[in-house]
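[User] Could I get a sequence and structure tokens?

[Assistant]
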Amino acid sequence: MPNPIQPKVTLVGAGPGDPDLLTVKAVKALAKANVVLYDALANDEILDYAPQEAIKIFVGKRIGNHAYTQDQINQLIVDNALTYGHVVRLKGGDPFIFGRGSEEIEFAESFGIPTFVIPGISSSIAVPAYQGISLTKRGTSESFWVITGTTSDRSLSNDIALASKSSATVVILMGMNKLSQIVTLFQNESKGETPVAIIQNGTTSDEKIGVGTIDTIQEVVVANKLSSPAIIVIGEVVKESNKLKGFFEEFVTSEIKL
């Protein structure tokens, strides 16, 4: 008799946190899941779209706390697909933006398992947008960088030094533990007055934000008790946000008084 189990893996981007930003296609995929392997999502409400009887396995990672290694996650994907059928691998943001999604797809395909990818809205774009920050703007920023703050060997990405020399908007993910190093790189390029926004838990009800400049942002982080997960946005577009421009107007006024 033929095996009734039809293994399949769907890699799904869960978006930046607000469950309303999940795509329609992602909802449809979750509704047909036999197993969901999910990351440390910003909002667990997304799991409600999966059938109640679906197996749900947490495989998330936070700094210093990994439920599984990446190799173990890869094997879980394959084992569950071969045993139960349709596995939805649910990853925060977009699975191909610092999500190691390509590694998981390649591993599943090496076992002959059909794979599909459903993109998600990346936090690198959506989180600034929720604060009215346009990463590009005519006359202000012609491009933007999206960089990981921490590489696989836990060091600071060399690309940040290159980005600090550019006039582009710079968006740094997973960079809070490297903030002092990031600040130093921009100060070395005489960019101490460049606007900075740090947004923690973006697009969620727990969202917190701190706004300053390269020279002041570390004090802002302490004052606002900001921590990971957070996104760092560096560039002139920050002060042109309608939501944030009031801060910079007050900042300039206080500087003049001094």
